[in-house]
Design goal:
32% of the residues lie in helices and 29% in strands.
Length: 204
């Protein structure tokens, strides 16, 4: 995996990751306008990644090719890895960021609670149980892959992430509310709100 940060003062990065299972390119600008371009071969996943860019206020490009003839697992997980790496590289030394954020976002009957800390310590608490059905897209999407995505993202981005389902019965609504809530929390957490690194250790 190769990762580069822009040298023009923007909090932006590009990551390329290639394995025998997937080939992925990520471009992210944390101070963008919410523009997004996603192409993974998985339409429902593309829709969720678009939510992340739009509601996070990030300019986000995701291009991925994977072994979808097997299933979507490798593509979804590897996009999480590459996106987390791009996020961490773009964030840099974290000077002045708010660091902590939380949001509770509804989508019709679904309600998701998210809290996160750009701590430098990867950790995921994911308390979401789905009614059982797959997303009825073409092809159908297994919602269990969402936990794998967030685990990969939190690990590579080196952040602590708690995702809790408060209520909900529609799988699509639950997943989409999750992406929107994480997006808004990331947007709040990366906002510049001071001058130094927000830690008594002096580093995150």
């Amino acid at each position: 995996m190769s990762a580069t940060r822009t040298d023009d003062g923007r909090r932006a990065a590009t990551v390329a990751r290639a394995t025998s299972e997937t080939s992925i390119l990520i471009e992210i600008d944390l101070d963008g306008q919410g523009r997004h371009e996603t192409s993974t071969g998985i339409p429902f996943f593309d829709h969720m990644l678009a939510q992340l860019g739009r509601h996070g206020g990030f300019d986000l490009i995701v291009r991925a090719e994977g072994d979808l003839q097997i299933d979507a697992h490798h593509t979804v997980e590897d996009v999480g890895i590459a996106l987390g790496e791009a996020f961490a590289v773009a964030l840099g030394d974290k000077a002045g960021i708010r660091r902590f954020a939380s949001n509770r976002i509804p989508l019709d009957e679904a309600l998701i609670d998210v809290a996160l800390d750009l701590s430098g310590r990867p950790f995921l608490v994911y308390e979401v149980e789905f009614p059982g059905q797959k997303i009825l897209s073409d092809p159908p999407f297994d919602p269990q892959l969402i936990e794998e995505f967030w685990r990969a993202f939190a690990t590579s981005a080196a952040l602590t992430l708690h995702v809790t389902l408060v209520r909900g019965v529609n799988t699509h609504h639950i997943v989409e509310a999750t992406f929107k809530s994480v997006a808004r929390s990331l947007r709040d957490a990366v906002r510049i709100d001071g001058g130094g690194v927000p830690s008594t250790k002096g580093v995150l």
